[in-house]
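Bench notes, afternoon.
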Amino acid sequence: METLIKKLNNLSLRKYFVVSVLATLVIIVLLSLFTIWGCMSFRKYLLPDSNNVFLKVYRTYEDGSEVSYSVRVKVGEEGAELPVITADDKAAKKPVETRYAIQRIENSVDALSPKRKMAYHFCGAAMVVIPIIFSIAGILLCGFFFYRRKLLLPLGMLSEATQQILDQNLDFNLRYDSEDEMGVLCSSFEQMRLKLSENYSEMWNMLEERRLLQASIAHDLRNPIAVIEGYTEYLQLNLKKGRLSEQRILKIAENINMSAKRLDNYTESVRTLNQMEDIELKRQKISASDLLSDIEDDFKIIAQKKNIDFRISTLLSNEEICIDTSVLYRVLENVFNNAMRYAKQCINLDVSLNGQKLLFAIVDDGDGFSDETLSEQRKLLLAKASEDGHLGMGLAISRILCKKHGGSLEIGNNEMHNAVVKIIFSV
């Protein structure tokens, strides 16, 4: 029984509706037949006698004389039995011709009492009206049953879930255990809620990263501004007194120019970061082996200029991947150039494909990332500008591009305390 109920609940709305209508129709037909049979039986009980038919009998004899008289004949379910023709009493002769004519018919209903007659007519009307009432009631009950069993609960759940979303609350679950259309709709709604929750989380993380980025930029801008302010105050105090030599003034001007360039680099980097969100990916299918061959050739030429040994290792076969090569090159170049500044002798690039994820690991033999940098890597920027004035914006830009391509960028150190940058792209 439970298995049957479960199968019925898992029927589609159309099939469940058809089953409900057919079941209702069968019930209505059975009830109507029972009502008609009951009314007919009661009417038969009210009319036990047959109808009476009054006939006029005409008899013609051989001498041409004719005799007429009236007779009553009972008409039952098996028909009527005509009166037997006998010899005439006076003439003791049989008639030559006998004819019959109906005078009138007395219906048995007319012979009933007023109460019985009313009951008889009521049964006749009931045989028509009650099946109609059964039909209307069956339609209403079938619709109510179908709505209550298949629509009421999921519609209520969807309405409540919609209100939760309107109230900006995505911390709920929508589960409706059924395989019909409403179950599919609730499942789709739940997937939409999960996607909205993910998007809100990503947006929140993006806003948090943007806030951290702005705070980091504001903090780092203080250094070149403080340098420029310090030199200008120093010049104002000492130029009038003639204490500065021409060589000293040129050195101060050079330092101010360097600080101004650092400010310009900051503004350019901020502008570049703001443009990252407008970049549209242009994925193209390309052979993985051809792509890695081009990467190896390009990076080897760059490494040779600084006498760095570049090595690439991969287990990829001639597989076809779908990727935006311009975005990939931009990320790899940013990370590779950063590794070139700190590498001592060699840089290794390991490439692998795990399902739909293309993984790159760039390792240099430098001193690795500092603990401060690793602890603050979520701020996108490096904790401090390097000694050569590099602002660390390349990693920030690369991390944003990786996220747009469905991947990520992580920094760390290996067991030898060498810097490791892991890049993941969705292909």
